[in-house]
Amino acid sequence: MHQRYTAAAWLHHRDLDTPPDEPTAALLWQILKMDLRFPNSRRRIFEILTTADRDALY
Question: Where are the alpha helices (DSSP H) in the chain?
Answer without folding.
Answer: 2-7, 10-13, 23-33, 42-56
